[in-house]
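Annotated sample (chain length 392).
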Amino acid sequence: MNFPFSFGQKSSLLLIFFFNGFLFSFLLLRKGMLFNNKASKWLSFLLFLCALYITPYMLGYANWYTHKVTREILFFVPFMQVLLIGPVIYFYTKSSLNISFKVSKKEFLHFIPALLYLIYSVIIFIIDKVILDEFYFYADGRDKDLANWYQIMGVISMSFYLILSLQHYSKYKNLVFQKVSFANSILFDWIQNFLIAFLAIIILRVLLFLLNPEWGEFGSQFWYYIVFSFVVLYIAINGYANAVKMSFLNDVNSENINVFSELDNEKEIANQASNEKEIEVWKHKIIQLIQEHKIYENPKLTLANLANELETNSKIVSNVINTGFNMNFNDFINHYRIEAVKEKLSEGKHKTTTLLGIAFDAGFNSKATFNRAFKKSTGLSPKDYLQKISKN
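Output written by the structure step:
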């Protein structure tokens, strides 16, 4: 059957975003399958859902609601899975920050609302098309995907899972700074930007509800779906570009760093330095180890490495660094790296080698991390600091 598609300005514009969504969904799925990358698979699924999300409006502006056959396709196919988008955002965030993440049986409960809506859609189809062979649920001629209650539930669902995702990222960020000396290399700013992008979508949707008295009308929401499509395109392009960075996590895991799994299963160790005298003893041991062996020069140094050198557990070392030195592990190690760089500069080593070379020898693994840590410690950029000591 030849289905009509009116290539108007609105339908054609949404059609471009529709195909881009499916294209990047396919590319990410392929990448996820080739490299067994769960995050890429989740993002692929998310882009697929986002492409389906704009489908009723794209086809609606292409006049599908004005023809019997195409109208019934839009009526009975649940294109808008708004109760599924939130959980997928959440699981994409978790799988991006932990390559060993798996959805547990308990976490499948997150999919129940979407499943119930799917069952609801099937019941509507059976009653209206199979049993009655006439519109009962669709007697009002309005697509159930666009119903006010369903759209509002979608915003609530996405808001809830966005909050969960932001909390998870914040927890991850704090844990990384406590566990590794190269935190800035694995912070995954992309995840933060990704969540901010979806926050913008939700805020825009809420503003549409509040400021537009006719928000439930089909024609009044075009600009929202255009902005939504642009944001999804941004997520698609940057999400695909950043997917290659996930390979770094394999290197991190190869060093037996348990930062990521601890997000889902934190274990408290009861034995830890608890009194001031004991903390002072451990402080002396840590300082002595660092000064004598210069372990800060290891760019992949972790809290577990330091604990192993001291023949104790990570919890004790973390507690001593937090309470005894009033720093997290990342800042503590970077402090010694900065001091080592400053010592080399005072000796004039920058005259025979590059500043970045000195930073790498001290244990930094990137120019950006070095510059950020140096300015945080001294209040000056490395070049400004060099000019300052040159004048003295």
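Annotation: The radius of gyration is 27 Å.
Annotation: Residues 148-179 form the longest helix (32 residues).
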